[in-house]
Amino acid sequence: MTDLERNKRVVVDYYETAFGGDPEKAIADHFGPRYVQHNPDAQDGPEAFTGFVRWLRGEYPDLRLHIKRVIAEGDLVATHSHLDLEPGNPDNPGRALADFFRLENGKVVEHWDVIQDVPKQSANDNGMF
């Protein structure tokens, strides 16, 4: 397996494990010695990440993360995902996420994201995913 493929698998497992309800396992398995967060609404470090996931799952206990695309280059992995906050609720179609992770030695050490609400109606029929 190439480093790019390994890094993609690490990020997918990390993200699915965390949002699947076990952020502590995701951190234990996949965080490096530090975690630098570039989202201005989030703090650095594993405790802040755990707190965010626990809070979000408390607000939306049935949420589902659907990773649609994974791209890797160098030490970066990008994902394009649908965060379905309330599956089956047409009044809350969720959020579109573009996440960028930097890895060192196969561990996540840095994160950037872009988040957009999925609109109920679109000016085109292309979909966001």
From TrEMBL:
InterPro entries, A to Z: Cyclase_SnoaL-like, NTF2-like_dom_sf, SnoaL-like
Signal peptide region: none
Domain SnoaL-like: 11-111
A Pfam family hit: SnoaL_2
GO BP terms, alphabetized: polyketide metabolic process
PANTHER family to which the protein is assigned, alphabetical: ESTER CYCLASE (PTHR38436:SF1), POLYKETIDE CYCLASE SNOAL-LIKE DOMAIN (PTHR38436)
Protein name: SnoaL-like domain-containing protein
The organism of origin for this protein: Streptomyces bauhiniae
